Amino acid sequence: RNVPIARSVQTVRNVPIARNVQTVRNVPIARSVQNESTDLSAPTDLSAPNGLTAQNVRSARVVSALARGGTGPSRASPFLIHRSSNPEGQTQAMIQTLSRTLTALLVFIATANLALADEKNQEPRRFYATVGTGVDFNRGDFGEDITTNSASIPFSAKLEWEPVTLRVSVPLLYIEGSDQISGDGTEGSDADEAIVAAKSSRFGVGDIVTSLTYSYYPDRYSSLPIIDLIGQIRIPTSQPGNLGSRGTDLTFGTELAKTFGLFSIFGGASYRIKTAQDLDNIWLASGGASIKIVKWLSVGAAYDFRQASTPRATDSHEVSPYVSIRLSEHLRLTPYGLIGLSNSAPDWGLGTTVSYQF
Fold first, then answer.
1. Any idea what DSSP says for residue 108?
2. Please, which residues bridge with residue 152 across strands?
3. What local confidence, expressed as pLDDT, does residue 312 receive?
4. Rounded CA gap, 274 and 279, in Å?
5. Given this model, what pLDDT does residue 40 score?
6. Helix (H) or strand (E) holding 170
7. Residue 143 CA to its chain's centroid (Å)
8. Which of 111, 166, 254, 354 has its CA 20 to 30 A from that of 189?
């Protein structure tokens, strides 16, 4: 697990932030990376013990995210939505069924690992706890005539009992600009064509993003990469409601990371199921590289892709350079930037995450 850290957020990024606007995570797939990095989205993920998992190597932005996430981590960036209320066709039964499926899958994975560890007579697994926060700001017009500024302060917690990791994150969001920009990274439906955007400002608590990850760690001299299997649930708890998702989002994905001396590469893909009936299910992907300059300093860059959830919107593409600074044995600081490459991404953004591991 001696892997130089990449992005901390999300966006996964595993905490949703204004940019999915799903995570801060020390890793991004799709926001969050809003997190979506990734956005598994996206979220924010925080530093991992004695190195990084594939998620911890992803985005520095919170996947608000997670996640924009969450794996997300993840990060977060705002996108177009319509003003109508949640679709009446969405049922609690559907959400419960999908949630139970996710839980059963992750429990099965964890149980299988316990049996395997027992067979191999491995050492007792280590336990870690990490808490983190940060700040994220981004700006863009998202293809509209009105420029929108969004800011996020994500709060996240991570419990790791190797090789299983549980993450929970929630952001504090502020959006000023177009009233058609939301905090969850979803785009408007075709019915929005006749809607004219107006200026507005909103402030409140974003959606809660939770994720469960199973990590495979190969032998030290193995040619195999670290492999993360991730399940994420985004719960629409934002207040006011237009700061977050219009329905529960379920995300399943995998992330890989491999170190070659001081150089590390990482990447992943995930599939997000949206329960809001007017939004399509989407694919997310991320990838990047980092290099360790000295023992306490690494630099890198990551690319995040998120498919549009409606025919009217465009896919999101963005690049995030970052620096990871280990201030002490337990404290890590990760400043980062954002460069949008499409209308569905912010024009630019800046932020930082800080995490403390017990």
1. H
2. 136, 173
3. 78
4. 6
5. 36
6. strand 164-178
7. 23
8. 254
- Distances in Å between the Cα of 66 and the Cα atoms of 16, 63, 200 are 5, 3, 26
* 337, HSE (Cβ side, Cα atoms, 13 Å): 7
Residue 349 near residue 138 (C-beta atoms within 8 A): yes
**In the structure encoding, which two tokens stand for residue 237, read together?**
């708890």
User: What confidence score (pLDDT) does residue 169 get?
Assistant: 97
Q: C-alpha distances in angstroms, 99 versus 145, 151, 206? A: 39, 30, 20
Consecutive sets of 10 residues in the chain, 358 residues long: mean pLDDT of each? 41 36 34 36 37 44 37 38 45 59 61 54 76 96 87 97 96 87 56 65 92 94 94 89 81 97 97 90 97 97 94 91 97 98 94 97
Give the CA count within 13 Å in the CB-facing half-sphere of 27.
43
**36, containing H or E segment:** none
Q: Which residues of 125-164 are buried (b: 16+ CB within 10 A; e: fewer)?
A: eeebebebbbbbbbbbebebeeebbbbbbbbbebebebbb
- Measured CA to CA, the distance from residue 338 to residue 351 in angstroms comes to 9
Q: What are the distances in angstroms from CA 159 to CA 139, 141, 165, 166, 304?
A: 33, 38, 6, 5, 26
Question: CA-CA distance, 113 to 276, in Å (whole number)?
Answer: 34
Secondary structure of residue 222 in the 3-state scheme: coil
Per-residue pLDDT, 25: 34
Q: With pLDDT > 90 as the criterion, what percentage of the chain qualifies?
A: 47
